[in-house]
Amino acid sequence: MKGKLYILVVVLLSLLVVFAFANATGNIKYGGVVKFVEPQGPLTFNLNPFSPVGLPTAGIIYEPLFAINFLNGDVTPMLGTSYQWTNNNCDLIVKTRENVKWSDGTPFTAKDVAFTFNYIKQYPALDTGGQWASLNYLQSVEASGDNTVIFKFSKPNVADFYSLSQQIIIPQHIWSNISDPTKYLNTDPVGTGPFLFKSFSSANGIVTYVKNPHYWMSGKPYIDGFEWRSIESNSTGLLMMLKGEADWAWISVPNPLSTWVSKSPDNEFFSPQVAYNYLFLNTQKSPLNNPIFRKAIALAIDKENINKKVYYNIAGIANSTGIIPSQQKEWLDPTLQTLSSSLSIYNPDEAIKLLESIGYKKDPSTGMFLNPDGKPMTPLQIIVAAGYTDYITASQLISYDLQKIGIPTIVQQESPGAWYSSLLTGQYDMSFTWTGSTLGPTPYYMYYHLFAPQFSAPIGQAAMSNWSRYTNPLIDAALGVYTSTTDLHLQKQAIYTIERIVLDDMPIIPLVGAPMWNFYSTRQFTGWPTEENDYDPVSVSNPGLMEQVLLRVHLK
Q1: What pTM value is reported for the model?
Q2: Cα–Cα distance measured from residue 187 to residue 431, given in angstroms and rounded to the nearest whole number
């Protein structure tokens, strides 16, 4: 644990040095209002940070304890300055930042942190991050003095630090007086963040924030304000960016390199692979319950073609272990690199050999495979949400590839609600999609949500995230080892074990990247994250990460 604490200290000191150097040399130009757009539909005037329909406040007005870059695991101390696991990893000790004040001038202390966690326990509807879910084993949260918080667990769960770190902290002196926080609109929010709420216009969906003059990080933010606008569509966002009416957009449009980047040297596009798009397979249904059949499907799909025709060569090809590129150096077993690469390559001839090895033979008259019993195969359905154009095109390409080697398939479009329900209840054969629950600073979080038995369910019942309904006691044991220790070597061995099982059994098929699509303009502002300086994967749903951009961007 000493090593991790040392890293935290080094990160903090490095940040302070960077900030001090920038200010001392006068390289930073202050001022300006950053304008951000995203298609979110009509907005309601509600600044309750726990409300699912509230205006944006996390990472703007309210802050978390730490910001963790889930591309590489880098930890940036925010309201927390350090952490340590003790008592056989059943106690998490977090030190909180001194000399921080709420925007109304009241001192921030560890008591606010303890209050926040106990408050969302008292009102479970506020626990949107599932901090008190039974599977996390959190027992109690208490403040010890003004700058120490103690999280006690009933059993070791070091992986839960990632979730706890993202919980936004609220002021006890305000919220302890709220009789029903689920209905509280919080029209005059008090936070520790870099901005204060200024105004909201429901007519044009604009929320305006101004710089907090008493923000605890000296010299930050560089900008005077931030404007968050909900727009009608992705195309509206692109048009606003092209007209110079916005500086930053979280949108999805066809061929961004052509429609955006090529239009001006000021136009930047940052699309880190934060996860993968998978072909989910219902492993509880024949023939998809056979790992050799699943591996044949993986080899029969031309992933390069999907990347080219659906994602304009931006998404990239997935590693067969499911581990994203930024985590492979640290977490991919070196002895599995050749195998994982071979399973990502388009190899229809090998796919045919695998099917033949388990008794499938082609019907000479149709060219399609027959079942081992000699009967025609029932076409496998690939379900997809109607209107999800990229998913539909990818599904059609997958269907074509499988038909080409002799596996009959049908692409079945369903309404988004029906499609999602089919995934959850196991009423499907295959489906191309991703799941946000796989995001995390190490591969543990992906494997946990994809394969942990508690996220699975019998067909007909809803599975939270293990949509393939694949479980394996060896994977379950490895997940347990990972979260019970802070020893990096043991954690890596646990992940290596899972990687080998995934490559052997192919319970899901990672196909192409699922990148964040962020559009920036450097016409007025600079300091955006880039491929070379990926300090932030830029997720507007992660409070600590969006804040990192708002603290670094500045006028040119």
Answers
A1: 0.92
A2: 43
